[in-house]
Write a structure and sequence with these properties.
The structure holds two protein chains of two kinds.
Chain A: H1 4-23, H2 30-46, H3 70-92, H4 94-100, H5 112-131, H6 135-153, H7 160-191, H8 196-202, H9 209-212, H10 214-232, H11 240-247, H12 250-277, H13 283-303, H14 309-329, H15 340-369, H16 380-383, H17 385-399, H18 405-419, H19 423-448, H20 462-480, H21 483-488
Chain B: H1 3-19, H2 24-45, E1 54-62, E2 67-73, H3 75-93, H4 102-121, H5 125-133, H6 136-146, H7 152-180, H8 190-198, H9 204-222, H10 231-237, H11 240-250, H12 252-261, H13 266-292, H14 297-317, H15 327-357, H16 368-371, H17 373-387, H18 393-405, H19 416-443, H20 459-477, H21 480-483
Antiparallel strand pairs in B: 1-2
Helix pairs in contact in B: 1-2, 1-4, 2-3, 2-4, 3-4, 3-11, 3-15, 3-20, 4-5, 4-6, 4-11, 5-7, 6-7, 7-9, 7-10, 9-12, 9-13, 10-11, 10-14, 11-15, 12-15, 13-14, 13-19, 14-15, 14-18, 14-19, 15-17, 15-18, 15-20, 17-19, 18-20
The chains are: A mainly alpha, B mainly alpha.
Chain lengths: ~500, ~500
């Protein structure tokens, strides 16, 4: 079956759920989320049966802007898993949603249905983005993702924080879209092509305007980097991140932090990689490295004084973007030994598992204890040893302790940087990792050393328990055996 | 499956068993006891006449670069392995009664033990590194939750951040090291890397900066002056079993690493030898004087442990590619063993003392010798061992280190190494002074007013103490048991 059917299936599922939501008023609306979870899981299985162009459909126009390669398949799966977990999280977060949507006697489930089907459309956009290999399809898929996020971020309409986040995300998202379109236009102008492969092929053409006007090329690429910098939260385009992460509903923060970042890196890699590995724009690597160093440093150091857990994770998410950018910057010298694509995929997979665990625990704690400060987690090991254990695994993995996925990700990034001889930035990364230990362990300290104010327990629904255990297993498996992901790309 | 796999896995299985409800203390004791037995079996089965690593086993984890979970021991790692199993078993046996969260307490100790064992048995430098980090978080827990002293929170942060940063610098050094030897495919396999390095792999200038990075990384982990300030307060406030394991075993990881890597980086050591000599004199003399000024027994032991690392560094610094059979490193290894065992016994006994007396301030103690004779006898043995009295393993180590400094000396002027050795000799005097003074203050003289009665070492607790003392004496009287295993 052609790969594009998967996105179609997700969109159809989304529309069906939307209609059901409108017509089934009385029933418990969490069934929408449950159907969504099952449906996405079935579509995930379909991922193993897809194929690219073949004789019977090779004439389809879609293949010129839609790639079916390991990258595309990997990140489609990535988007599906993320969305499934986000839906499970949303179910555990329903109390907060209903509270801020003004649920009352008449409308006891206000807003819940919409909150559960909208992520499906984001998911379709993310999946398409993984396959986009033409600047037009990149733009369109990116907009699908961004617009559904506009709604979701500002979803809690009676919560000032959520509204503020929505406005900030809207304005800066629109601004970055502007940068992206402008940059892509320049690329088109220089090459006369919209397909990324064709644009890259122009690099080999001595007479192409691209080679005749290196400044223009650099300008175009800089604009693209600015736009993608917004998406993946790289310094100095990270300003929106702490406020938006803090204000948005927690499942959506998780979605933004994992799905949106991964998609940004896929697209970034597809657009920029040919230019890094050629000589057309030698300043490009320096630019990426400078951004990456600043991102690692600012993300890690600014996370240190945070007292709000969600805000701290926003900075942590910034710092991880820095490490991923560093991997991207190494694309030139990496050679064939270690594939940059594989390293980024490994890093992002570990990041998915540990970040989603963290946000999931956060949803449960917010829903049952009602707070997002780190002090809320005081004595969590007594309230729920299971959740504390899970969060401990996520935190040590984020900090990069060996035998967890987080360590292997960082290890390969260090390896790439060492091969490329980027010694200065390695020193910066060392500082970043050191600071990281402090703020991640701050949460561990709260959970295990401090005493809780009261003896409320936190209960974990079975579905959430299953999801958390599965994610923890991913962390440990990737922590000792990263080969499956690395081999997938070679 | 090699015997080493079992030794590494047992503590981790113990943790699992404890998590699923097995009684914590018994399980931990059983697991470490089994490990002690296996360690001795490995020693018996080990064939000293063979070159290279024995009991090897390996499973590939990643192809590019080649990383595998690979185990194997040579003489050096065998001695470290024995040290780890002996101290682990005794540390768990000597653990005091745990009031709260007994499961977490013993799981943390088992993690530290597994980390040390894994690091010493790995022949893949990736896992060599990774296993050591396994002990980081448990140490943070131990000091933070069960530590003593008002400053324990800061202390826990300090040790954790210091060790995390040291480790990451070390990681950078290890990656740089293997990338210099990547002709023929990147690999983290120690045996292959040793082969390649012996074939003249690394250019001299690269050796210089890689050695420096490794020296800083390992140095932070071993509390090399001036990166030593985390160690003494951490050992003072950690619960006794943690101090025993950390000061006795885990800290030897950095020294073990330097002993492994220095022969592969001979030019690197040449370049930085003078710096290393200055720093190790800092350890011996500067920290030695700091130790003299301590008023609490735990602070004194912590600082003395930092100070004694200086001699081991001296043994490493005396290594040279040109001397045929360098005796300095051999002395360093004996000293590592002797120090590990004696400091473990000292920390274990100090823990008991704190438990029964409520304080370790030496002014407030006195005349305990009459009341608890066996305790004071054991403490005396350990303190004399630590100060380098002949008959104990520490003495044979220190003597060889000092001889190593003068190996090949022809009677002409002193080199820097020899000046450093002469200075370091004064450290022996300093150790004798503070150890004897501590002994006098605590066990001799008059008992101060308001003195509490206390119990002597009970019969059950004499077992681990005896094991530790006997190991010190055996190696002290017959160091060839170990020195014959070593080739540098």
């Amino acid at each position: 079956m052609p790969a594009i059917y998967l996105e179609a299936a997700v969109v159809v599922l989304g529309i069906v759920l939307m209609l059901m939501e409108a017509f089934v008023d009385k029933a418990d609306k969490s069934f929408i989320g449950k159907i969504g979870i099952v449906g996405l899981a079935v579509i995930f299985l379909g991922l193993f049966m897809v194929e690219g162009p073949k004789d019977s459909n090779a004439h389809w126009a879609i293949w010129s802007f839609y790639a079916v390669d390991p990258t595309a398949l990997f990140y489609k799966g990535f988007a599906l898993i993320t969305t499934i977990i986000v839906l499970i999280m949303s179910l555990d977060y329903r109390g907060v949603i209903q509270h801020y949507m003004g649920a009352d006697q008449e409308k006891p489930q206000a807003g819940l249905g919409e909150f559960l089907y909208l992520p499906l459309f984001t998911c379709a956009g993310l999946m398409w983005m993984a396959s986009a290999k033409d600047i037009v399809s990149i733009f369109v898929s990116l907009e699908l993702v961004t617009i559904s996020f506009y709604i979701l971020v500002a979803f809690l309409r009676r919560n000032v924080g959520s509204l503020e986040a929505g406005v900030k995300y809207l304005i800066l998202g629109a601004l970055s879209t502007g940068f992206l379109v402008y940059g892509l236009t320049w690329l088109f102008g220089l090459s006369g092509e919209t397909g990324l492969a064709e644009i890259a092929a122009e690099l080999g053409n001595e007479e192409s305007p691209m080679n005749a006007h290196p400044q223009a090329l650099l300008f175009a690429l800089a604009l693209v980097i600015v736009a993608l910098g917004f998406k993946v939260a790289a310094v100095p385009f990270q300003i929106w991140v702490p406020d938006v992460y803090q204000g948005a509903p927690t499942p959506i923060t998780a979605f933004l932090s994992v799905g949106s970042k991964a998609a940004g890196f896929v697209v970034g890699y597809r657009i920029i990689e040919p230019f890094i590995t050629s000589d057309a724009a030698p300043q490009l690597v320096t630019l990426i490295l400078a951004i990456s160093g600043a991102t690692i440093l600012l993300g890690n150091l600014a996370a240190v004084p945070q007292t709000n857990f969600k805000r701290m994770l926003a900075y942590s998410s910034i710092s991880h973007a820095g490490f991923l950018l560093l991997a991207l910057g190494c694309a030139r010298a990496a050679g064939d030994d270690v594939k940059v694509e594989g390293v980024m995929a490994l890093y992002l997979s570990g990041y998915l598992a540990m970040t989603l665990i963290t946000f999931h625990v956060m949803c449960l704690v917010r829903d049952q204890l009602g707070g997002e400060e780190i002090t809320t987690y005081n004595g969590l090991s007594k309230r729920s040893p299971f959740l504390a254990g899970m969060l401990l695994i996520a935190m040590v993995s984020l900090a990069g302790v060996p035998f967890t996925a987080g360590f292997f990700g960082k290890f390969y990034v260090f390896l790439l940087a060492m091969q490329s001889r980027f010694y200065v930035i390695i020193a910066v990364a060392v500082i970043g990792v050191g600071a990281g230990f402090y703020y991640y362990l701050k949460v561990v300290k709260a959970m295990y050393w401090e005493e809780a104010d009261d003896d409320r327990k936190v209960t974990v629904p079975p579905l959430a328990k299953g999801a958390l255990i599965a994610l923890a297993i991913i962390i440990f498996v990737l922590g000792v055996y990263p080969s499956p992901i690395l081999n997938f790309f070679s | 499956m090699s015997i080493l796999d079992i030794i590494i896995l047992l503590p981790l299985l113990g943790v699992l068993a404890i998590a699923f409800g097995a009684p914590a203390r018994i399980t931990a004791l059983g697991v470490t006891g089994a490990n002690l037995a296996l360690g001795v079996i490995a020693w018996i089965l080990f064939d000293p006449s063979k070159e290279g690593f024995q009991f090897v086993a390996s499973r590939a984890v990643a192809k590019v670069p080649e990383i595998s979970y690979a185990v194997g021991i040579d003489g050096l790692s065998l001695i470290m392995l024995l040290l780890s199993v002996i101290v682990s078993f005794c540390a768990i046996w000597m653990a005091p009664k745990v009031e709260s969260r007994e499961k977490l307490y013993f799981s943390s100790l088992l993690f530290i033990s597994a980390g040390a064992l894994g690091a010493f048995c790995s022949t893949d430098i990736f896992f060599f590194y990774a296993f050591h980090e396994l002990a980081l978080i448990p140490t943070f827990f131990m000091i933070g939750i069960w530590g003593s002293g008002e400053d324990r929170v800061n202390t826990a942060w300090k040790i954790t951040i210091y060790l995390a940063v040291g480790s990451i610098i070390l990681l950078a050094g290890l990656i740089a090291f293997q990338s210099q030897l990547s002709q023929g495919g990147m690999t983290f396999d120690l045996i292959t890397l040793q082969q390649r390095a012996a074939d003249g792999g690394i250019p001299a200038e690269a050796q210089g900066w890689i050695f420096l990075t490794l020296l800083i990384g390992f140095g932070i982990l071993v509390s090399l002056f001036p990166f030593h300030s985390w160690a003494a307060p951490a050992y003072a406030s950690a619960p006794a079993p943690t101090s025993m394991l950390h000061a006795g075993v885990l800290k030897k990881f950095g020294l073990y690493g330097l002993l492994r890597f220095t022969p592969m980086l001979p030019e690197g050591l040449e370049t930085w030898r003078n710096l290393l000599l200055v720093l190790l004199i800092g350890n011996i003399l500067f920290v030695g004087f700091v130790t003299l000024a301590q008023k609490h027994l735990d602070g004194l032991l912590g600082n003395s442990s930092v100070m004694h690392m200086g001699y081991v560094f001296l043994g490493i610094a005396s290594w040279s590619a040109s001397t045929g059979e360098p005796i300095g490193p051999t002395g360093a290894v004996l000293l590592m063993f002797g120090h590990g065992v004696s400091i473990a016994l000292l920390f274990g006994l100090a823990g008991k003392l704190r438990e029964s007396m409520g304080t370790l301030e030496m002014e407030k103690l006195g005349g305990l010798g009459k009341q608890i004779p066996i305790f004071s006898f054991l403490f005396g043995l350990a303190a004399f061992a630590s100060a380098g009295l002949p008959g104990f393993a520490n003495f044979s180590g220190e003597v060889l280190v000092f001889f190593g400094g003068f190996q090949g000396y022809q009677g002409e002027g002193f080199t820097n190494l020899q000046w450093a050795t002469v200075l370091a000799l004064w450290g022996v005097v300093i150790s004798a002074v503070y150890m004897l003074r501590a002994y006098r203050n605590i066990f001799l003289g008059e008992q101060p007013d308001g003195f509490k009665a206390t119990e002597d070492v009970v019969l059950m607790q004499r077992v681990p103490c005896t094991i530790l003392v006997v190991s010190l004496l055996v190696i002290g009287f017959y160091p060839r048991l170990f020195s014959d295993l070593l080739t540098f």
